[in-house]
Specification:
Elements: H1 8-19, E1 33-34, E2 42-43, E3 51-55, H2 56-61, H3 67-71, E4 77-81, E5 87-91, E6 99-103, E7 106-107, E8 126-133, H4 137-140, E9 147-153, E10 160-170, E11 174-185, E12 188-199, E13 204-206, E14 210-212, E15 216-230, E16 233-252, E17 258-278, E18 283-305, E19 311-317, E20 322-335, E21 342-355, E22 366-381, E23 384-395, E24 403-411, E25 416-427, H5 431-435, E26 437-439, E27 444-446, E28 454-466, E29 470-491, E30 496-517, E31 521-533, E32 543-556, E33 561-570, E34 573-578, E35 584-589, E36 592-603, E37 608-615, E38 623-627, E39 642-646, E40 651-659
Length: 660
């Protein structure tokens, strides 16, 4: 039986009370410079996209160890655990694939890999995170459909040596340690970061039938080197390494009547380097090379769920072993001269990917993509700017039509800016969709090497009103997907499924956010309503989900104390969708609430900062729903649904940081 908990009136009252309580002090921290969307840093107020900035203090107060921990507390974002697939990040009900992840303005994750888990991107001494809302497929390529998330590392500019060490524990058997060493020596800057993270796991039962145990251990190491060739022009090189080991026992495989016991190890190596910065007063260049290796080894045992929920042992297997390699190279030249009407950016990109594990016979799991991009920026008056751009892409493995965008920026008065954009973006097929082959007595899935990229037509308009301490934003987004890729049955006799370009979806969103900052008090309140239509041609119904978020930070002047409260509430979601057999099914996600309380205390003149708090204060079920099985064992199993519940649990945490 699925447990339902409803807090609607109580939560709304708490959010409103926390968000608008407090006193005012003068502060100019809303004026933030940003790297997102440009080779040269620009003022946040002048960017063509609205950019939400998550500051380092917010990361510390949420005790966020990785990107997945952090994003789920903000509007449009949610995260669900999918067993061997890791944590699935869902942005604006469109899935993780509609968001591009950058590290210091550069591509980090491979663009067509199914298995990348956002919990593998750790926040070791991160300066800030910028969420650039709106599509930008012309400028950033695949997956840049609804947002760009740019993670910016801490980079001290002062001369000398900097060292930071951190330890973090919780009563859920978590133990995390990390550190950073940074050295400035004239034109040379060197940083090294290391961390080790351990989570003992979640104990419990899934719908009273499957025991779950999810211990997880991760190790992270990164090194960065930068040399200043000219004032404003740097040669950069970095290496990032992630190694993780997890045990996932009894987790149900989505869309099947199987559960899996798995020992999964993953290794990610990312190396990049190149030139970035100003060539002259008005020209900037970015010439980068990026190599990523992703290796997964999975030893698992399948268990088949019969009608009476008894488990029978199936043969083990290792077909979850993957080894993806990607090489990416890109060059871009940008000209910015505010005294002239027209500026521009032109560039080219080359990507080559392969899967070593599946290079067998005549089928070579390799994909090469070449893209050319260009945009022009027009500023006829100081209060009006336009940006137009186009990207042309070609590949040996799939087809991608041209993508284009036009964006406007209108400075209505000294406090009000209107941003709008219309265009077409895309997502290239993943390796699984192109090459995947999996067979068992009941389920055969194969890739399709005749796929095309998913295409997205989008429109968005964002109004922002800013005063000295307040920032109000209203965000409207409309998105339509064409040629979306879906798993469909192609041969009923052999129960064979393949990936096809068949789906069409639509998304519409309206969001409002109010932010206040001062020296001693900060508060933010946001509300959003998102509608998703999975098959508009057949039925044409939108299902809507509401979100409310609130955060409050209070600093005691001259004492080093900071108190915070973060609350996020999601309404229930009722959805009618099409399963892999083309049949309609009901799917329900119950409402859930996240509520974190935390305190930071800076012990002055010692370099120590102590943080402690409570996560998931209400300890409610975060996910509940049902899915239909793909594989059938007989007529008695037809249309039988299996509920899924996940409870992440309340926990206390303690953090100690020392800076030298």
């Amino acid at each position: 039986m699925v447990r339902r908990i409803t807090y609607h009136p109580v939560i709304l009252a708490i959010l409103l009370l926390l968000s608008f309580a407090g006193s005012a002090q003068r502060d100019s921290s809303l004026q933030v410079y940003t790297l997102s969307g440009n080779l040269q840093p620009v003022d946040q107020r002048e960017a063509f996209h609205f950019i939400k900035v998550i500051e380092k203090e917010d990361i510390d107060l949420l005790n966020a160890q990785n990107l997945n921990d952090l994003l789920k507390y903000y509007l449009y974002s949610s995260s669900f655990y999918l067993g061997a697939e890791g944590y699935q990040y869902d942005y604006m009900q469109s899935g993780r694939r509609s968001v591009k992840i950058l590290l210091n303005g550069q591509q980090f994750w491979q663009s067509s890999i199914d298995k990348i888990d956002l919990s593998n991107l750790f926040l070791i001494e991160i300066e800030r995170i910028e969420i650039m809302q709106g599509s930008s497929g012309v400028f950033y390529g695949t997956n840049a459909v609804l947002a760009i998330i740019n993670v910016i590392s801490k980079d001290p500019r002062s001369e000398g040596l900097h060292f930071i060490a951190r330890g973090n524990v919780s009563n859920a058997d978590e133990f995390n340690t990390s550190g950073m060493l940074h050295l400035n020596a004239g034109p040379h800057r060197f940083s090294i970061r290391a961390g080790r993270f351990f989570h003992y796991g979640i104990h419990g039962r899934d719908s009273g039938r499957v025991y779950e145990w999810k211990p997880n251990r991760k190790a992270v190491l990164s090194a960065d080197y930068s040399y200043e060739l000219l004032p404003g022009l740097n040669a950069d090189a970095s290496v990032n390494y992630v190694n993780s080991l997890s045990k996932d026992y009894g987790y149900p495989a989505p869309n099947t009547t199987r559960v899996i016991d798995a020992d999964i190890s993953q290794e990610i190596i990312n190396a990049k380097g190149g030139l970035r910065g100003k060539l002259s007063k008005f020209h900037s260049i970015s010439f980068l090379h990026n190599y990523t290796s992703f290796q997964q080894n999975k030893v698992y045992t399948e268990k088949i769920l019969s009608q009476d929920m008894e488990r029978s042992q199936a043969d083990g297997g290792t077909d979850g072993n993957l080894h993806y390699d990607q090489y990416w190279s890109g060059i871009a030249l940008e000209r910015v001269d505010k005294s002239r009407i027209v500026d521009y950016l032109v560039g080219m990109e080359f990507t080559h990917q392969r899967d070593r594990a599946f290079d067998q016979g005549a089928v070579k799991t390799r994909s090469t993509v070449f893209s050319a991009k260009g945009d022009m920026r027009f500023q006829w008056r100081k209060d009006l700017k336009l940006q137009t751009g186009v990207r042309l892409s070609g590949s040996n493995a799939f087809k991608t039509p041209a993508s284009y965008e036009i964006k406007g920026w209108y400075y209505m008065n000294s406090t009000t800016v209107l941003r709008s954009a219309y265009g077409r973006s895309y997502r290239i097929p993943t390796f699984n969709e192109l090459f995947f082959t999996y067979e068992d007595p009941s389920l055969n899935i194969r890739g399709n090497r005749n796929l095309s990229s998913e295409m997205y037509d989008h429109f968005n308009a964002i109004l922002s009103i800013r005063s000295e301490n307040f920032l109000f934003t209203s965000n409207t987004i409309w998105l339509q997907t064409r040629n979306a890729i879906q798993l469909v049955e192609i041969d009923e006799a052999s129960s064979t499924y393949s990936f096809m370009n068949t789906r069409k979806t639509k998304i519409m969103t309206q969001g409002i956010n109010l932010e206040y900052r001062s020296d001693i008090f900060s508060a933010e309140f946001g509300i959003a309503n998102t509608g998703n239509n999975q098959f508009p041609d057949e039925i044409g119904n939108y299902y809507f989900t509401q979100e409310i978020s609130s955060s409050v930070k209070y600093r005691i002047p001259n004492h080093g104390w900071t108190f915070s409260s973060f609350i996020k509430w999601n309404s229930p979601r009722n959805e009618i969708r099409i399963d892999s057999d083309g049949e309609l099914e009901d799917y329900t996600l119950a409402s859930y609430t996240l509520w974190d309380l935390s305190v930071l205390k800076e012990i002055r003149e010692t370099g120590f900062t102590i943080g402690f708090g409570m996560k998931n204060l209400l300890n409610v079920i975060r996910v509940s729903g049902a899915y239909l099985p793909l594989d059938r064992f007989g007529p008695e199993d037809f249309n039988q649904k299996f509920p899924v519940n996940v409870d992440f649990g309340r926990r206390l945490w303690l953090n100690l940081t020392w800076k030298m």
